[in-house]
Specification:
binds NADP nicotinamide-adenine-dinucleotide phosphate, 309 residues, alpha/beta, 28% helix, six-stranded mixed β-sheet
Amino acid sequence: MRALQFTTYGGPEVLRWAEARDPHAGPGQIRIAVRAASVNPIDWKLVTGMMSGGQPLTGARYLGLDAAGVVDEVGGGVSGMSGVSGLSGVSVGDEVLGRGVDTQAEYAVLDAWVAKPPSVDWAVAASAGVAGETAERGLRLLNVEAGDTVFVDGGAGGVGSATVQMAVARGAKVVASSSQANQDYLREIGATPVLYGEGVVARVQAAAGGPVDAVFDVAGKTPVEDLVSLAPEPSQVVTIANFDAARAGARVTGGGADSHPVEALTLVAGLLAQGKLAITVQTFPFERAAEAYGISQAGHVRGKLVLVP
Ligand SMILES: NC(=O)c1ccc[n+]([C@@H]2O[C@H](COP(=O)([O-])OP(=O)(O)OC[C@H]3O[C@@H](n4cnc5c(N)ncnc54)[C@H](OP(=O)(O)O)[C@@H]3O)[C@@H](O)[C@H]2O)c1
């Protein structure tokens, strides 16, 4: 099969769509023929080497953490709700979306998945894994409920746009930040938009028109002290992108133990099927992955970038 890969750290120009060894489903896993795989910022961060801890690269590295596709191999012990495997009685030929590793390839192994709703486009389905799970996690950790006001700092990208809509779906009032270019988009998906940058605290307070119950920092750009000043207590600020934020009492989440991928994917697939969550996607053939990586790295994505065969 072919897979997106790199053998030297660098920018998008080091990416190659080239031959790779076929992966196989281990216990509790499935393999899919990939119909679409999304690009997440972690992908270009891996390519640049900024996550390498200064260690040199040995051999080829592969990319991608979520995808949608058709099941073509079922690992041992996957007949029911086993481990984090999310689909009861999954069979070869089923259409699924989910999370895995090295998903930007012709075939990929998933370890958390749900059925793809038939009405949902492949590229949209592929976008749900990381962005949808992260949005669910943030809203759950912040205990956002109907009637609450939540500020999403960085509302227009993959995680942000899913968070805005999932918060609206549960009856929250959402204020979200973006650049000027995405203010109308934020309005379309149900948020009251504010510009990020200098003065954002006052703009959020004015837009909220009352207390802010929770702050989800998706971008990691606003000083954490400013975000804490908006919340009823520091722990009601959760960030996925400012790993220094705990010093101000905010909570940092990187997934892992506080991640409930199957529950999150089930929720997200349901919202997609009901039309309560719409993910704006821009697609690129795998051969043109470098273009998508360049856009992701520039940091102003609206919705999601998705690679397709
Ligand atoms: N810890 C975790 O579990 C976890 C999980 C997923 C992602 N992440 C991280 O979270 C970050 C966001 O991921 P993503 O997939 O949503 O990225 P993305 O799709 O690339 O979106 C980035 C967004 O950031 C916005 N932005 C840029 N500068 C900003 C600023 N100064 N203030 C507020 N927003 C700003 C952009 O809005 P404009 O286009 O309007 O400028 C854009 O919509 C990345 O760093 C990613 O690695 C962490």
